[in-house]
Amino acid sequence: MPFAPEDIRVDLTCGIGPDGHWRGWFGVHVHPDALRRLGLHPDQATAVTSSSPPAWWHADAERRARR
């Protein structure tokens, strides 16, 4: 792994979503100096530019993965 244990932090938050089901959210935080060592800039825009795909897309991907 390119990061030392002290360079990365993973948080987990759990709660009830708007649909009443329990959900978990992960947050991954990397120290800026660790990113610089890999040639990345900590102020660089995120690669995620939109929301997650719809639920049917995830269900179809899981069905295909089991085949």
3D architecture notes:
The protein is of the alpha+beta class and 67 residues long. It has helices spanning 32-37, 55-66; strands at 8-16, 22-30. The protein has a two-stranded antiparallel ribbon with strand order 1-2. A hairpin with a 5-residue loop joins strand 1 and strand 2 (22-30). The radius of gyration is 16 Å and the shape is extended. The two termini are 31 Å apart. The model has no long low-confidence stretch (mean pLDDT 82).
Strand content: 25-35%
Helices and strands, in N-to-C order?
Answer: EEHH
Query: What's the alpha carbon Rg, rounded to whole Å?
Result: 16 Å
N-end to C-end Cα span: 31 Å
Total beta-strand segments: 2
**What would you call the shape?**
extended
Helicity level: 25-40%
Overall pLDDT, averaged?
82
Count of helical regions: 2
| Weakly predicted, low-confidence segments | none
**Class computed from helices, strands and strand pairing:** alpha+beta
Report the biggest beta sheet as strand number plus sense, adding barrel if it closes: 2 strands, antiparallel
